[in-house]
Amino acid sequence: MPRSRLGPLAIETKLGDHPSQSCVWRAIHVQLKRAVAVKVFATPFGGTPEARAEFASEWATLKSLQHPAIAKCYGGGFEQTDAYLAYELIEGESLSAQLQRRTRLSWEAVLDMSEPLIEALAYLHKLGIIYGAIQPDKILFAGLSPVLVDVRTQRTGTGYRTQRPPTPDELKLLPPELLIDPSALSPQTDLYMLGATLYLAVTGRPPVNGETIEEITANIANVDPPAPASLVMECPVWFDKLIMQLLQKNPAARPNSAQAVKLALAEVRRRSMSRTGVAEHASSGFSPLTVTSQDDREVARRLLGRDSLDFDDDAPVHDVAWHDRPFVLIAGLLLIVGAFAWVIWPLNEDQMRERAEDLLKVETRTSMMQAKNSYLKPMLDRYPEGRHASWAEEQIERVEMKQAEHALEVKLNRNLPLKDEAERLYAEANQFERFGDTATALDQYRSMVTLLGDDPNYRPFVNLARRQIGKIESEGVDIDEASRMIQAKLDEADQLLADGKVIPARKIWYSVLELYGSNEKVAPLVAKAQDRLEGRAEKTTPSLPQVENDPNMTNATAP
After folding, report:
1. To which H or E segment does residue 119 belong?
2. Residue 51: which H helix or E strand, with range?
3. C-alpha span between 476 and 459 (Å, rounded)
4. Average pLDDT of the chain to the nearest whole number
5. N or C: which end of the chain has fewer CB within 10 A?
6. Is residue 15 a part of any domain in this protein?
7. Which residues have CB under 8 Å from 61's CB, separation 6+?
8. Which of these, 136, 135, 138, 70, lies nearest to 98 by C-alpha position?
9. 3-state DSSP assignment of residue 175
10. Same domain flag for 28 and 169
11. Could you tell me if 372 and 446 lie in one domain?
12. pLDDT more than 90, % of the chain
């Protein structure tokens, strides 16, 4: 177990889905007051000077990486026999935890997850960096956005790495070439492990199974997994084929680059939104709708259940099978033409609204985007003066509000720069509201509407501000609320300090300074927070609350 301090970091608690096996800790950078995730490596004698220099060079490279789907590295250091790397702390749930809770994810959710991940891999590969360890526990979610954690430039061949062997669950996601040579890392190994992770997320099971390490390794080398679409019928054939190509045993048979996979995923999304599901399945490969050969019969039995198909393998074979007779072929052709016409026939306004409503009811980011792009915008383009035009405009604004709010939340959680004045003003007002000062938040939202209300580029955030104004006004607001709320927060911080909870108390004082440092109306209360941070006040006595309310007395804090 590492010491309570590592350089400028104060170590708190272990992180990870399995803390007993983890070497990653939550820590606080004492000077910057920032929470980080720190990975600790115990090395006998602290490593050779050459190894330490190589490790320092690695963390310098890691600090330069900038990608929204990669957890930022803040650097590293040495402390006696320990070395460490400090990363951005992602507070969200891991993919591993999600799968333990839900068994598997919908193919739409997996597609949403795969696109940022392949962009991150393409970014790393362009820089000559192989991630080399894609696993469900190394994919965390910041809001709805997946983030790769624990990026290394030297995954093997260094003393500063995890020494434990892979668990059976981790082994099941490794490509065959790494079983022969663990240092044989290449872009294709990353692609295989991404494919194995997507397979696990879609189907709820790994590509290979086995009871022992020997059985697992033999299956990885020799056994091809069943296609995802044979286990999860709603998985589109295009996604199915891409995952299976990523899982090819021969690295040369996999896609030639992450960029190629990115293009393939874009094609999967395009086709999945074009409503060409069953017909595309049938034309792209096996379909349970057409069963002819003995091999197809076996696949159909596995898909639909042996008892659900009444095949008579010993039935006599006629010269002309019934399905080859002219009237059957003509009828089949008419059905295909009718189905094709139904697919491409333009929807009327009522049908477009009905389908948009079905997607909007799901209330996921993917479904709302699909409703907007596939039905709401085409409805306005085709029926600009239609009876549902106003409704479509309202729904588009609602979807764009949800998109903007989600994007801002991800940026705030990850300390990313805000792109414009609308994001900055809304984030500032929302911070006051979350802190409990609805009066100041209301003023901020109103000024935002006044300043930006006429600019269509800022419409989503202006609409969000209007929504919050209506909410606050309906609940009522008190102009003296700020003073009472800040005093209540200071009292809360004093109680936390009295209970020995220094870090939560200091967070409250910092929040008061950050939010109200320039507000002259509450300057005395801000000064109290400043005094407590600088240790200029006497210690609080919780049993005498009247001391806190006496303006002639000095509020206290711990040294």
Report:
1. helix 107-126
2. helix 49-63
3. 25
4. 79
5. C
6. yes
7. 129, 153
8. 136
9. coil
10. no
11. yes
12. 27
